[in-house]
Amino acid sequence: MITVFGEGRGFRVVWLLEEMGLAYRLRPVDLLAGVEKDAEFLAINPAGFIPAIQDGDVTMVESIAIMEYLMARYGPTSLAPDPHDPAFPAYQQFLHLGEAGLAASIYFVVGARNFAPESERQNWSAAQALSVFESRLTLVTRQLARTPYLAGETFTAADISVTYALELAKTSGGITFGEVEQSYMARVRAREGYKRAMETCHSRKAWLEGKKYEHEPS
């Protein structure tokens, strides 16, 4: 049984597991309460950020690395095109852009807008992070104007990676998307795997419905 520790970016992992039909359990991690009180989790990831997984003797952190591990170990899967597939370069690019270019930058915007003192909410670093997010978003928009999914005609793990970042940007980062992005998000959210993942991730579901803010420290 694969154990997923924490929601937040852990939603990517849960969604992937649902799409692959793999058995797992989600073990909540309350970062707001303070991970220093969660000895079981700290034994898995002493750095104290989420997500993490435990799969037998394997322990891993970092959502994209976890996704790649699961697809390699339990695949093959259509979520990861073969390296010789013409879709592979776009898949690989957007799988990593979803974190390195989008989520990692909008994270700092979210932090500034939701947690910083009022005088710091529009600081230089937050503006720089927003500029990075917006520049990378143009690559997503251009690709989606050409194809229904980021790797082409077929849904892949790259869509899981990027959708997470877009949802974070829209719900907590104050980003307004155009018709291309909105249609895309509606399309991927209609997937049964996404719906099942949402039913598992109660905190995330409440956050997306506007009932509370989901803290995103990882």
UniProtKB/TrEMBL annotation:
<dbReference type="InterPro" id="IPR036282">
    <property type="entry name" value="Glutathione-S-Trfase_C_sf"/>
</dbReference>
<dbReference type="Pfam" id="PF13410">
    <property type="entry name" value="GST_C_2"/>
</dbReference>
<dbReference type="InterPro" id="IPR036249">
    <property type="entry name" value="Thioredoxin-like_sf"/>
</dbReference>
<dbReference type="Pfam" id="PF02798">
    <property type="entry name" value="GST_N"/>
</dbReference>
<protein>
    <submittedName>
        <fullName>Glutathione S-transferase family protein</fullName>
    </submittedName>
</protein>
<dbReference type="InterPro" id="IPR004045">
    <property type="entry name" value="Glutathione_S-Trfase_N"/>
</dbReference>
<dbReference type="InterPro" id="IPR040079">
    <property type="entry name" value="Glutathione_S-Trfase"/>
</dbReference>
<feature type="domain" description="GST N-terminal">
    <location>
        <begin position="1"/>
        <end position="78"/>
    </location>
</feature>
